[in-house]
Amino acid sequence: MPTALITGITGQDGLYLAELLLGKGYDVYGLIRGQNNPKRALVEKEVPGVKLLTGDITDLSSVMRALNVSQPDEVYNLGAISFVAYSWENAHLTTQVTGNAVLNMLEAIRLYAGTDIGKVRFYQASSSEMFGKVQDVPQRESTLLWPRSPYGVAKVYGHYMTINYRESYGMHASSGILFNHESPRRGPEFVTRKVTQAVARISLGLQDQISLGNLDAKRDWGFAGDYVDAMWRMTQAPEGDDYVVATGETHSIRELLDLSFARVGIEDWDKHVYIDPQFFRPAEVDLLIGDPAKAKEKLGWEPTVTFPELVNMMVDSDVAQQSAQAGA
Ligand code: NAP
Ligand code: GDD
């Protein structure tokens, strides 16, 4: 069976991708950073079949070691500083981890593969954040990139470096331009999970208010489980390529609030939401909506979870989690 190496194994997508690949019979390795990563236990509990290797994508020799130990057929580079707001406060670090480390991954694979460049297939986690100040509606693979955050700029670097390794060395390297995707495993710093966790707590009488920033921003939100399937389909395709992965629908934070509060029977959410200027960004990405036509046609990929279904899934999961914690 094939072997895969996943960076970012402790993150939302790492867990879903590991589950998918283990289910397909893959031998799965995950790169985990730090000498005592607090999320190790989570990975061991949720995807016990994964073999963990320590390493950091900014450390070329640790990536080389992981390749030599795992001998992968496929490498999925999901590791990144992924929180856009944080990237302004830690711009240089974000550049190193989210941008420069992509070159480390590509170069390590090139050195590892030697004359047999086709022996490893590479997936890079690119992002709709690269579209930033959008130049087309909807956004496609050909849309001009105009990033609006240090995170977005770093992702553009990784995106073009991936294309460059494909064109320079014939590497099977794909870049998935993924629009926002969420799940009950989403980090609580991102707006969907921040809202669903708070709504659950408000419905249980554990808190009264949630502080948010710009409620008018619009995102094309899908389910993470569907999006990792698109990653896998890219590595199975005859050639590496770039693909937009999106639902083709966009919704505002206000709509997210409408649906989340409605799920717990609260129609009038105004009194629970407080606008706090600290959550506004130096430059906002106002509107994201992707056109996934190429992924549908070439990869046979389709999203299976609608926006209301996604919100309900997340609210229900948070209500269950918060009730259990409150009862404990
Ligand atoms: P996430 O939950 O924030 O996970 C990020 C992962 O990167 C974590 O496992 C983190 O490990 C790891 N990481 C951070 N710095 C690292 C380093 N120096 N070396 C090795 N690993 C490191 O993100 P996600 O939502 O799963 O997203 C996965 C990837 O897709 C990211 O590259 C993200 O930028 C990209 N993306 C996400 C979305 C989305 O909507 N979710 C959309 C487009 C693109 P620790 O636990 O040790 O911090
Ligand atoms: N996080 C957060 N917290 N966002 C808020 C808040 C808040 O309190 N209030 C309003 N927002 C708005 C942000 O200004 C942004 O317009 C939108 O909610 C979504 O923010 P996030 O959920 O943090 O996601 P993101 O779109 O910035 O980035 C995510 O998607 C990208 C793909 O487009 C991340 O997963 C990135 O890693 C990913 O590349």
TrEMBL record:
GO BP terms, alphabetized: 'de novo' GDP-L-fucose biosynthetic process
Any GO MF annotation of the entry: GDP-mannose 4,6-dehydratase activity
The keyword Hydrolase appears for this protein: no
Annotated NAD(P)-binding domain residues: 5-314
Catalytic activity, reaction form: GDP-alpha-D-mannose = GDP-4-dehydro-alpha-D-rhamnose + H2O
Pfam families hit by this protein: GDP_Man_Dehyd
Enzyme class: lyase
CDD domains recorded: GDP_MD_SDR_e
Keyword terms, alphabetized: Lyase, NADP
Origin: domain of life: Bacteria
Alphabetized InterPro entries for the sequence: GDP_Man_deHydtase, NAD(P)-bd_dom, NAD(P)-bd_dom_sf
Transmembrane intervals: none
Record-listed E.C. numbers: 4.2.1.47
Cofactor names: NADP(+)
Protein's UniProt keywords contain Protein biosynthesis: no
Function: Catalyzes the conversion of GDP-D-mannose to GDP-4-dehydro-6-deoxy-D-mannose.
HAMAP family in UniProt: GDP_Man_dehydratase (MF_00955)
PANTHER family hit by this protein: GDP-MANNOSE 4,6 DEHYDRATASE (PTHR43715:SF1), GDP-MANNOSE 4,6-DEHYDRATASE (PTHR43715)
Assigned protein family: Belongs to the NAD(P)-dependent epimerase/dehydratase family. GDP-mannose 4,6-dehydratase subfamily.
This protein's name: GDP-mannose 4,6-dehydratase
Organism whose genome encodes this protein: Nakamurella sp. A5-74
Gene: gmd
